[in-house]
Amino acid sequence: MEKLKRHWLQVLTHVGALIPLALMIWGYTQNQLTANPIREITLRTGRIALVLLLLSLACTPVYILFRFRPALKLRRPLGLYAFLYAGLHLLTFVGLDYGFDFSLIVPEVLEKRFVQVGMLAFLLLLPLAITSTRGWMRRLGKNWKRLHRLVYLAAVAVVIHFVWLAKGDIRRPLRYGAVLALLLLIRVPPIRRILRGRKVDGSQ
Amino acid sequence: MVKIHPSEITPEHLYLSRRRFLKGMGALATSALVLSACGGEATPSPTQPAGAGSDELTDDLTSENDINSYNNFYEFSLGKTEVATLARDFKTSPWTVEVGGLVDNPRTFDLDDLQAFTQEERIYRMRCVEAWSMVIPWLGFPLAALLEEVGPTSDAQFVRFETLYDPEQMPGQKSGAFEWPYVEGLRLDEAMHDLTILATGIYGKPLLPQTGAPIRLVVPWKYGFKSIKSIVKIDLVAEMPVSLWMAQAPNEYGFYANVNPDVSHPRWSQATERRIGESGRRKTLFLNGYEEEVAYLYEGLDLRQWF
Questions:
Q1: Which residue of chain A has the CA closest to B67?
Q2: Structure confidence at residue B177 (pLDDT)
Q3: Cys-Cys with A17: which of A81, A110, B18, B302 at CB 3.0–4.6 Å?
């Protein structure tokens, strides 16, 4: 109980991040994922991955603005869950949708820029997920932080992926883009200094 | 009636049609009912399905529930499953379709007039540009029958269709993201083709609002968005109409929008599709499998340029 009190935010993060997956599995078994479940799973995993990635990128701004230090502890789990859903998203595309038929998948990737930029985002997140452990942090030292700045690029790639695949109305992806822009802007050192009033340590 | 050009047939098509033929023969041989009903001689065609529960390629019908719950109808919502709920109270009666433009006898048809045309069942594949498809048992009548009543003049080259514009009833039309009302068009010869119908029902029942009630177009060899819903206006015109999608994204949507696995959409490869109710993908057929019936309409037309 004492432990739960101390770690409630972490617990909430884990539960919150896994609920969409549970709902999706339940929906799949109950035949509740529309007439086109594969597409629904693709859309949901993609959307959840993006939301979690943005939440992970929101931790530092929350700290900057409200000096709420516990938020910083959520960056890693949120980022890893974003990667989990991104992985499921990719696996849905390759496996569920195209049945691992690479004679269909390869032309799709070569032909469609939105697929390429999505793949790029995944490839950028991959090394970050691998090096997310304490051991890798220690081993990489100063370079760890440099490496993990790739997350900004990955997030931008995800938003472009979303804009490029939208049919007709791109306002929704652009709203996500606006949130990302804001989260990135708060980090820019001069802006950050104004917001904080003084220099911050140890956060990205 | 059938004219096939060697240049339009790839070995793959041959292979597929052979398989289809064998499948059809299998179905015929095993079903005494079908044998007795068709005399074993009739070859299934788009107007003569292989059996009650399938189209002429022996593809199974999509379930009524799937057809009525998975809809692209942006006048109501961008979400496919939201349309049915939002359209529930949509008023489809009284309703009139104004037919005019370059015609001898402009006329306004009300629901009774439309029902007066001989209604027949047509089982068609519906291929969405988003690379999914359904097999739908429509109820309706050839558009040609209606056009013959108004008598297109010799200047008429195209037909322009318009959906109802009523933002109070169609909340999606309040969105500024599209240039409402929805407009679509056909070349006159496409419009007069026997496969082109005005549909009033599905599965023997009147259309529901989410599927385009009370009257919609169905052009089975073109991507689904050509089959405009809830029509209030049909004009015969001399110039190629600009459809809503052409205006929205001219590099993505052309006037013809013929189903073609070899011509990709910028966002979806059109080589394969998912049949609703099936897992995995199936190869998309040239002109959605209606090549024998309609390929002659596009002789000499570069389908890459005129996508």
A1: A35
A2: 85
A3: A81
Of B69, B132, B249, the CB nearest to A168: B249
Residue B307: inside a domain, yes or no? no
Q: Which residues of B are less than 8 Å from A36 in CB distance?
A: 70, 80, 132, 274, 276
Residue B164 belongs to domain with CATH number: 3.90.420.10
Judged by a CB distance cut-off of 8 A, whether residue A104 touches chain B is yes
pLDDT at B290 over 60: yes
Report the pLDDT averaged over residues A180-203.
Answer: 81
Residue A18 counted as domain residue: yes
Beta carbons within 8 Å of A162's beta carbon, 6+ residues apart: A46, A50, A173, A176, A177
- 3-class DSSP state of B198: strand
CA distance B103 to chain A (A): 34
Greater pLDDT, A2 or A99: A99
Does some domain include residue A190? yes
DSSP codes joined into one string, B77-124 = BSSTTTHHHHTTT---SS-EEEEEESBSS-EEEEHHHHHHSPPEEEEE
Task: Give me the residue from A36, A96, A101 closest to B132, CB to CB.
Answer: A36
Q: What is the pLDDT of residue B15?
A: 44
- Residue B305 located in a structural domain: no
Kindly state the tokens that stand for B12: 């793959």
A39 to chain B, any CB pair closer than 8 A? The answer is yes
Mean pLDDT of chain B: 89
**Chain A residues inside the 8 Å CB shell of B245:** 168
**Packing angle between helix A75-91 and helix A113-130, nearest 10 degrees?**
140
Contact (CB<8Å) B266/A168: no
Residue of B204 and B19 predicted with greater confidence? B204
ipTM exceeds 0.85, yes or no: no
Residue B37 is predicted with a pLDDT of: 47
Residues on chain B touching A32 (C-beta within 8 angstroms): none
Average pLDDT over residues A146-158: 97
Q: Is the pLDDT of residue A61 over 50?
A: yes
The answer to whether the CB atoms of A38 and B267 lie below 8 A apart is no
- CB contacts, 8 Å: B272 with chain A: 104
Domain that holds residue A28: 2-195
Dump strand ranges (E) for chain B.
96-101, 107-110, 120-127, 132-142, 158-163, 183-187, 197-202, 205-206, 216-218, 231-237, 272-275, 282-283
Q: ∠B40-B61-A167 over CA atoms, to 5°?
A: 135
Task: Please calculate the CA angle B255-B259-B264 and round it to the nearest 5 degrees.
Answer: 85
Residue B220 confidence (pLDDT) above 50: yes
pLDDT given at position A9: 92
